[in-house]
Amino acid sequence: MTVPSIRVQRWALGLGLSLVAVVARADNSLGQRDNLSTGLNERQRAELAVPPGFVEGASLNGLLRNYYLARDNHDTPARQDPREWVQGLYLSFRSGYTDTPIGVGLDVHGFYGLKLDGGGGSGGAGLLPLDSQRAPQADFSSAGAALKLRGFDSLLQAGDQYLENPLVAGGVSRLFPQTFRGLTLKHYGLEHLTLDVGMVDSTRLRNQSGQSRLTTSYGSGDKAGVAADREAPRMVWAGGIYSAADGPTLTLYGGQLSDIWRQYYIGVSQGFALSPSVTLTPYLHYFKTRDQGRGQLGRIDNDTYSGGLTLGMAGQSLTLGVQKVDGDTPFDYIAQDDRSFLYLSNSQQYADFNAPGERSWKLQYQTSLAFIEAPDLQFSAAYTRGEADLTRVDPGNPGYGYIYNAAGKQAHHWERDLALRYAVPDGRAKGLNVTLRWAAHRTGQGYTAPGNTRGNANADEYRVIVDYPFSVF
After folding, report:
1. pLDDT over 70 (residue 453)
2. What does residue 356 show for φ and ψ, rounded to 5 degrees?
3. How many whole angstroms separate alpha carbon 461 and alpha carbon 452?
4. pLDDT for 174-213, tens place per residue?
5. What is the CA angle 178-183-188, rounded to 5?
6. Where would one find the signal peptide in this protein (predicted)?
7. Of 386, 364, 349, 365, the residue nearest 465 (C-alpha)
8. 3-state SS string over the chain?
9. How far apart are CA 433 and CA 416, in angstroms?
10. CB-based contacts of 232: which residues, under 8 Å, 6+ apart?
11. Which of 36, 73, 343, 458 supports an S-S bond with 166, CB 3.0-4.6 Å?
12. Rounded to an integer, what distance in angstroms lies between the CA atom of residue 272 and that of residue 2?
């Protein structure tokens, strides 16, 4: 979907995060992004206009985040209900740029997470790292930095950084955002067109202190759910976004996850004003994925289509989304994108509706509650239903064989998502956000493969997130 023009606030420029409730390019912010969004593409473009001065343009901002996540797995073979509660502190220093033909700057970030609850075998919710006994650790922390250069209408970054594009993006739906280590370049010199190329060789996952090699969300396990040797040494990509005022937004990307796949993406959307207060926005996403190199996840021949219509009126929106996966493997993506920036119409809080041969539809409603004199409350509700064919999977496939189910010819499942957010509008607590989320996922006969302990079962998931942004300078 298309992102409308977003006003980037000064604290967001410094922190690199945005708590503004906006429609995300891939998903809705209220239902998917948990307040915590890098706002990366908008922030980077805005940095080109920051006046010269390494110190004069610097900022130090932070975010206090309290996060509770509990999942009731009704019948999972693992017989474990993950539950974690964590208090986090995030700090971000962003320098200005030197007054030289090529401006030089530095971004530094760090965080600390403290466990408040998660013992008694209830860990595994993704907020905290796990020890050798799969118990959540008492705390964790990390820090990273990236050198940045600007000039000739371009921005070059090298080091630990955030990414957001259709092929690789950092998950933000847990305590802290995921980062990637590598080199990226964006060019803004062509009218209405942004060019984007990059290479990364490792990532810091959302509940991890150190770096990991690149893996995928669905191809990194076996029937026992144990991580296998499915790592890639690097990811490279090139792409562009064309967006003109009152015209369509067209996005094209191509990339390669070494020894795993080549992937291509095309997306288009266009907003139409039906009246001064009513808009209609159709959108379409297409992914083409093929195995590459040593094919560490086996043969991949996957085409995935998703699209829909969004009707907006008076602070409300109604979206109808449809999705089709054409292939004998699921639509997969780099871990841990976790749906925060996933460019699939029907990817939801719990399930992606991306199984082999799956067809799905979604109905979603979002609104502020201004019509009941509560403009600082936002509400979102969605229902998604799909039918997959798990018999299409090759049980001998090294990456996805665990998904095979002989009884899964017509594997049905559905998900219901509800979210409510309150933002304090003024006073000392201005900027404080509280978000409540509930997802219910139910499956039919044959949906979960025998021996698959990775989830995809009947479950209810609850999240409570309290965010408070602050600025030091």
Report:
1. no
2. -55, 130
3. 19
4. 888 889 999 999 999 999 999 999 999 999 988 888 888 9
5. 100
6. none
7. 349
8. CCCCCCCCCHHHHHHCCECCCCECCCCEHHHHCCCCECCHHHHHHHHCCCCCCCCCCCEEEEEEEEEEEEEEECCCCCCCCCEEEEEEEEEEEECCCCCCCCEEEEEEEEEEEEEEECCCCCCCCCCCCECCCCCECCEEEEEEEEEEEEECCEEEEEEEECCECCCCECCCCCCCCCEEEEEEEEEEEECCEEEEEEEEEEEECCCCCCCECECECCCCCCCCCCCCCCCECCEEEEEEEEECCCCCEEEEEEEEECCCEEEEEEEEECCEEEECCEEEEEEEEEEEEEECCCCCCCCCEEEEEEEEEEEEECCEEEEEEEEEEECCCCCCCECCCCCCCCCCCCCCCCCCCCCCCCEEEEEEEEEEEHHHCEEEEEEEEEEEEEEECHHHCCCCCCCCHHHCCCCCCCEEEEEEEEEEEEECCCCCCCCCEEEEEEEEEEECCCCCCCCCCCCCCCEEEEEEEEEEEEECC
9. 23
10. 213, 214, 215, 257, 258, 259, 260, 296
11. 343
12. 12
Angle at 466 between CA 59 and CA 6, to 5 degrees: 50
Identify which of 183, 185, 184 has the alpha carbon closest to the alpha carbon of residue 153: 185
Residue with tokens 């985040």, as numbered in its chain = 65
Across 22-36, 288-302, 365-379, least confident range: 22-36
CATH of 10-471, one of 1.10.20.10, 2.60.120.10, 2.40.160.10, 1.10.274.10: 2.40.160.10
* Interatomic CA distance for residues 150 and 307, integer angstroms: 36
Among 13, 27, 12, residue whose Cα is nearest residue 323: 27
Q: Is-contact 235 258, C-beta < 8 A?
A: yes
Q: Please write the tens of the pLDDT for every residue from 81-137.
A: 888 999 999 999 999 999 999 999 999 999 999 999 876 667 778 888 888 777 889
**Amino acid present at 464:** V
What tokens were used for 372?
Answer: 């009941």
Task: Report whether 418 contacts 437 (CB < 8 A).
Answer: yes
Per the listing, tokens 């493969």 go with: 449
Amino acid letter, residue 151: G
Give the pLDDT confidence of 134-165 residue by residue, as tens digits: 788 999 999 999 999 999 999 999 999 988 89
Distance separating alpha carbons of residues 141 and 89, to the nearest angstrom: 9
